[in-house]
Amino acid sequence: MSDQQPSPFRLDEKIALVTGAGKGIGRACVEGLVAAGAQVIAVARTASDLESLQAAHPQRVQAWAADVTDPGFLERIASLPQLDVLVNNVGTNKPQPFTDVEISALDLMLELNVRSAFLVAQAAARIMVRQGAGSIIHMGSQMGHVGAANRTVYCMTKHAIEGLTKAMAVELAPQGVRVNSVAPTFIETPMTRPMFEDPAFHRDVMARIPLGKIGQVQDVANAVVFLASDAAGMVTGDSLKVDGGWTAV
């Protein structure tokens, strides 16, 4: 009989929910959580993205085609009998000069990046408080720690996520619920790849990252899995920056 202790990085028998799971960082987070042993509810608006993800992990991934801003989605979360991990990943950006920011862009980012993140976290936290345990991981950004031209609204929303993370962590800690954020730099995804094809943009980003390389979705997923696991059992109210040193300069 082995007396070997299970790895604190494992997520066996845990139920995780990942929003924005169809592509990019969200999809990588699903893959990482599955590899660590979790059962994952993958949420995205595009059903075809979820079908391929579920087909790759038929025993581990449950697909929910849903809009996170829909009240019915929150009700669906509330109906879950167990939820151990939330990866609050949905977000958007529409870069514009501050003096030219359109009201529609402002409203879109406040709705998706802040309001929906708050409400989804609230729905998940109610289950976790009832359980007496859980880990909520907000997808922040390095722009939640610094400022940037043409990104005033995005920076504002991601700074809001950092404030939400800290306040939730303090309030929910007595109930055994940990709350953290992951703050990536520019990550190579299908959405950002065209941006990196601009030589000037690529040079500027590389000049700001001391590690001298572009982040990959797996870098972010690894941080998420760590924060979801018992290996991070003493970590709450923090922001794990996956930025190659951008914010340290």
Automatic annotation (TrEMBL):
GO molecular function (one): carbonyl reductase (NADPH) activity
Q: Which controlled-vocabulary keywords does the entry list?
A: NADP
GO BP: any one term? xylulose metabolic process
Q: Name one Pfam family in it.
A: adh_short_C2
Family recorded in the similarity comment: Belongs to the short-chain dehydrogenases/reductases (SDR) family.
Could you tell me which PANTHER family the record lists for this protein? D-ERYTHRULOSE REDUCTASE (PTHR44252), D-ERYTHRULOSE REDUCTASE-RELATED (PTHR44252:SF3)
Subunit composition and interactions? Homotetramer.
UniProt name for this protein: SDR family oxidoreductase
